[in-house]
Amino acid sequence: MAIALSLLVSEVAAPPFNNLVCTFSATPQLHVVKDDTLVAKVQELSQLQWDMNTNIQVQSQHAFCIAGVVVWVYIRKEGWGPCA
């Protein structure tokens, strides 16, 4: 179920978040899905660590990193500051 939901979200997400999956484990990881076919993507994600015991503190740190990417992309798109 976690793999299916993660793939669905990564498929419908807009860049720069498309093909990005976060695992649910004690040591959550951000992973970029590289394969093309659905079967290959499921096989790729099934090799990741899916312990189903999510460390909420680390997950929150990932969320802050993702938020930073959102801000950076927005600033760059709008042509503001040194990131433009």
Set down the secondary structure blueprint.
Elements (H helix, E strand, L loop, with lengths): L1 H11 L7 E3 L7 E3 L5 H9 L9 H23 L6
Antiparallel strand pairs: 1-2
Question: In a few lines, what is going on in this structure?
Answer:
With 84 residues, the protein is mainly alpha-helical. Helix content is 51%, strand content 7%.
Report on this model:
The chain has 84 residues and is mainly alpha-helical. It has a domain at 2-56. It contains 3 helices and 2 strands, in the order H-E-E-H-H. The longest helix has 23 residues, at 56-78. The model has no long low-confidence stretch (mean pLDDT 76).
Number of helix segments? 3
Strand content: 5-15%
Q: Helix and strand succession?
A: HEEHH
Low-confidence stretches: none
Annotation, overall tally of beta strands: 2
> What is the overall pLDDT average?
76
Major β-sheet annotation: 2 strands, antiparallel
Give the spatial strand order of the biggest sheet.
Answer: 1-2
Describe the global form.
flat
Q: Helical content, roughly?
A: 40-55%
SSE class: mainly alpha
Cα distance, first to last residue? 40 Å
Radius of gyration: 15 Å
